[in-house]
Amino acid sequence: MANRIGGPPAGALYSTSIGIYKGENTTASESYLHFPRGICTDQDESVYIVDTYNHRIRKIDYNNTITTLSGNGEQGFNGDGMNAMSASLDSPGFCLVYNHSLYFTDGNSRIRKIDLETKIISTVVGTGMQGYSEDGILATNAQIDLNVDSGFYFFEDELYLADTNNDRIRKMNSSGYIETFFEGADLTNTIQMPISIVFYNGVLLISEQSGHTIKAILPNKTIVTFAGNGNAGFSGDGGNVCEATFSGPTQLQLFNNELYISDLYNYRIRKVLSNQTIVTVVGNGVEGFSGDGGLPTNASLSGAACFAFDVKQNYMYIADSNNHRIRRVKMLSNLPSPQQSSFIPPNTDSFDPSILWIIIAILAVFLLLLLLAILILLVVTGVLGALLWRKKREEKNQHSHKYAQVAHPSA
Asked: 410 burial class (0-12, 13-18, 19+ CB within 10 angstroms)?
């Protein structure tokens, strides 16, 4: 959709340098980042960067000034209940702004929250130990097993998270308790390393990084494949999304009700059109750094797992992690409104596989009744046969007795 990408295309918004922390209260382009893996925005047009290997979360305001929101630069865990600036973080990853708070993954076993008004940091999910805990306990007492790109999403004020290495989708309910929302029951109804999740009209879309597909969980908990043929590679642009090939699909984002996918190891960001056609919107498929000032599809990316949208300014911000940069694409302002958009989630009115189980159950009952009828018939036949044999034997005995009386009359 080149006609939906405008200038300045694929711009390197912030320069960086490997392994160095620099730039506080300065222009963002003068700052240094180290493997920025997460990025998110708020309604005030601020951009939040997860500066992963600097163990900080940084903020770029409307005036393009960069400051540190959280993290003292020391890798570790502390600071809950204190100002976020004094907290220690452990290679934070995915982030999301929701209800005036910034949520982010901290290490592989916690989700933490920063109140953007008070700047107080706290833990909302996880104990700090990787693992799996049963449901029904406080989310802060639950073990989870994430990776740096594991995402989460708020739906109806409940936090849904991709518990990646446990192959589950879990949620923290409104009471703060952990529940399992979905886990595969068998090999045909499962998810592999869920990474990113988004809800669209009650349908949960999940990126499977190791399965190279996008799965959808329908409201009736049926799971179907929405995108990808399951093979690793690159193909399908201009064709149906179900026949496309991905390589490590990671983050999913909805912008103006249209689905964008980071195709991580294809070094692209791709988009699903209203007719279920997939196209590349950013990236030429060559790992590296190039393309500033040119068309987004001519740019080279490296490690662009995460991206976010500024809905007011119509920008896409890309965390180009291995290039230690944040890059920016200007989207055209005449994109369809959410009411006009026609991104089509999987058809929830399609055949329900549960009906098949009902049919199988009915057939099983019918076969059982048929076997029972055959058994009864065999029993009745056996009884009747025995009675007939007995009757014939009695008649034979009577005939033999009469013959004996004729042959040997009594005196």
From this structure: exposed
Beta-strand pair 36-41/26-27: unpaired
Contacts for 93 with CB less than 8 Å, ≥ 6 apart: 37, 38, 50, 52, 104, 105, 146, 147, 148, 149, 150
Q: Which helix (H) or strand (E) holds 392?
A: helix 353-407
Structure confidence by residue, pLDDT tens digits, 43-54? 999 999 999 999
Closest alpha carbon to 305 in 329, 321, 328, 323? 321
Burial of 119-133, coded b for 16+ CB within 10 Å and e otherwise, reads ebbbbbbbbeebeeb
CB contact at 8 A, 321 and 307: no
3-state SS record for 284-325: CCCECCECCCCCHHHCEECCCCEEEEECCCCEEEEEEHHHCE
Tell me the pLDDT band of 75, cut-offs 50, 70 and 90: very high
Q: What is the pLDDT of residue 375?
A: 85
Phi, psi of 25 (to 5 degrees): 60, 35
What pTM did the predictor assign?
0.79
